[in-house]
Amino acid sequence: MTTVAVIPARYASTRFPGKPLADLAGKPLVLHVVDRAREARTVDDVLVATDDDRIAEVVRGYGVKVAMTSPECPSGTDRIAQAVADMPEAEIIVNVQGDEPLMPPDVIDLAVEALKGDWECSASTAMIRLRTEQDYLSPHIVKVVCDPDGRALYFSRSPLPSLVRATPEDMGVLKGTEGEPFWGFKHFGLYVYRRDALFRYVQLPPSPLERIEKLEQLRFLENNMRIRVVETNHDSRGVDTPEDLETAKKMMRNR
Question: What are phi and psi of 99, to 5 degrees?
Fold first, then answer.
């Protein structure tokens, strides 16, 4: 079963134009994402999907395959589907988003192995326990809740689960293993798809909750396509703005 990691990389970002080529520790950001995908032991091949010749030139010069995709792709998932359309050997497809230079390879491996081990699920992803109320309340951090078997029930940018009506007894049940306050789980910007599920997904129209929450993964859930979620202690941070890039530089120096 061949696993291919595809990195969607778009030049025309609204908040950070040219982001994939922004310098991070002396190397374009997108190449750090390539390195993280290459380091995952479950990944057999790495491919960058882009619509920009400048990105393609840099990636090819790094010895990585490029799939030129349409600038009209409505999402990174659509870009990935277009990139692997002529790769029937790609049975498991990993979406490593092009703005995740700090994505731990171990998390990629966890998500791949989780999907391979649960044939009832169409996709898998990862989550990490939130440590602060600030992150719990932040609309910039996507939260996820799961059933007891580790399958996603819902994703939201709003606080999830709501703790407004929780009693002290409820909170005692929800506390972590070290007794710290419970603030839910952050969802990682990482997806692993079965090939048939990916192509079914891109043929479906955007779903109502997906449109309300602005979270494309809800399209899976609204169409009865299950998502396996694995918990990790290895955090990552996406780069959406130039300020995020400076944070990533500091985190990289600390590592």
Answer: -115, 25
- Residue 193 makes CB contacts below 8 A (sequence gap 6+) with 92, 93, 94, 95, 115, 122, 123, 201
User: What are the residues facing 28 on neighbouring strands?
Assistant: 23
Helix residue spans in the chain (DSSP H): 29-39, 53-61, 76-83, 105-116, 133-137, 168-174, 195-203, 208-213, 218-222, 242-254
Contact 226, 152 (CB under 8 A): yes
Q: Is 29 within 8 Å of 115 (Cβ atoms)?
A: no
Q: What is the DSSP letter of 121?
A: -
pTM for the full model? 0.90
| pLDDT, tens digit, 9 for 90 and up, residues 157-197 | 999 999 888 887 777 666 555 567 789 999 988 999 999 99
Task: Give how far Cα 226 sits from Cα of 55, 76, 126, 219, Å.
Answer: 34, 20, 14, 10
- The model's pLDDT over 121-160, given as tens digits with 9 standing for 90+, comes to 999 999 999 988 999 999 888 999 999 899 999 999 999 9
What type of residue sits at position 123? A
pLDDT, position 47? 93
Task: Fill in the amino acid letter for 1.
Answer: M
Between 38 and 240, the higher pLDDT residue: 38
